[in-house]
Each structure stands twice: as structure tokens, then as C-alpha cells.
Recover the amino acids of this structure.
């Protein structure tokens, strides 16, 4: 809506997982998403890659009960729900901040302000959008690394709110350098293959 170039994050699960307690503890993706199971008398890796919440008994309890023998599937489900509910609230706040900046930019453009005049808030929109999208594109709803996800969403909100200040006050100096980002190079037109 504003013309600000956008960046798209592509499934940064590894980057987020590596910042969380499971990554730091040496727990691998397959430990949770493809846990060990008994099949025809053999202990094999489950080949149905899915959320551990659909298989808490095999995916979670083995490790967690080594630290707390009394922990139950419901305890772990409640812990995940709490993390994801807190994450979703922060995600909504970051989205509200970003949409607020977009609305302010649209109003400024409608009032006749140029892209050059709005260079700083447009850059901050791009930055806020990428930080939000990074967390949004990671499919654990904050579970893989709740503290890191919260930090990134906080940064997104901060950049969006700084962008709103910059729309209202062109002399405002944000906490990050504003850089010009050239447009992507033009690709040659696609030509259909010739029939042989």
C-alpha cells in the first residue's frame, strides 16, 4: 500500500530453534518431530514428521521425565499453550504497530508527501515488516525460542513506532541507520521454449 519494498523470510526454523533451550541442549529436530517408537519389535524413528504436541508421550515425556518424574503430558501441553498464547499476544501487538505505521504513511502520501520526504519511515516500515515476518514465517508460534521471538517482535514494534514518529517529525533520528536499498535488477523476459 505504501510502496515500501518488502523482504520475505523463508522458514527460519533452524535460526530460531538454535536460540532456544532445546537447541542449546542438543535436542535435534527429529528428536521432537520424529521421535523414537516401537514398531514390529524394533525401536525406529517415527516417519510421520509432525508437531510434537500430537505425540507428547513419545516426543516429550522421555526427556522431561528424566528431570521431573511427576511431569505429565497435560503439564507439557499447558506449558506450550502458555508460551504460544504469550507469543500470539506480542505478535498481534507487533502487527498493530506495523499497520499503524502503514496507515500513517498512506495518510502522509494522500496529503502530498513524497517518497523522498518519507524515506526514513518507509525504511522503518520495511525493517519492522521483516522482523515481524521472520517470526511469523517460523512455524512454532514462538515455542522454539520464546525469548528470541519476543525480542524480535519487540524490535519490530520499536521500528514501527519510530516510523510513526518519523512520519510526524521529519527531523527525528531513529536508532538505526537509514540506508538506500536499490531495487532488484530487472530480469530478462521469459521466453517460452521452442517446439522441436
Amino acid at each position: 500500500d505504501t510502496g515500501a519494498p518488502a523482504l520475505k523470510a523463508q522458514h527460519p526454523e533452524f535460526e530460531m530453534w538454535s536460540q532456544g533451550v532445546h537447541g542449546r541442549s542438543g535436542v535435534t529436530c527429529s528428536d521432537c518431530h520424529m521421535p523414537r517408537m516401537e514398531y514390529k519389535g524394533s525401536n525406529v524413528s517415527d516417519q510421520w514428521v509432525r508437531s510434537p504436541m500430537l505425540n507428547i508421550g513419545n516426543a516429550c515425556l522421555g526427556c522431561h521425565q528424566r528431570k521431573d518424574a511427576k511431569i505429565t503430558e497435560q503439564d507439557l501441553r499447558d506449558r506450550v499453550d502458555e508460551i504460544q498464547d504469550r507469543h500470539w499476544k506480542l505478535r498481534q501487538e507487533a502487527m498493530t504497530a506495523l499497520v499503524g505505521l502503514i496507515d500513517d504513511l498512506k495518510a502522509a502520501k494522500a496529503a502530498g508527501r513524497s517518497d523522498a520526504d518519507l524515506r526514513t519511515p518507509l525504511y522503518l516500515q520495511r525493517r519492522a515488516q521483516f522482523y515481524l515476518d521472520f517470526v511469523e514465517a517460523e512455524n512454532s508460534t514462538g515455542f522454539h525460542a520464546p525469548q528470541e521471538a519476543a525480542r524480535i517482535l519487540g524490535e519490530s514494534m520499536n521500528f514501527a513506532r519510530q516510523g510513526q514518529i518519523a512520519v510526524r517529525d521529519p527531523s527525528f533520528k531513529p536508532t538505526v541507520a537509514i540506508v538506500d536499498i536499490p531495487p532488484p535488477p530487472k530480469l530478462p523476459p521469459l521466453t517460452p521454449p521452442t517446439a522441436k
Residues 18 and 24 are 7 Å apart (CA to CA). The mean pLDDT is 94.
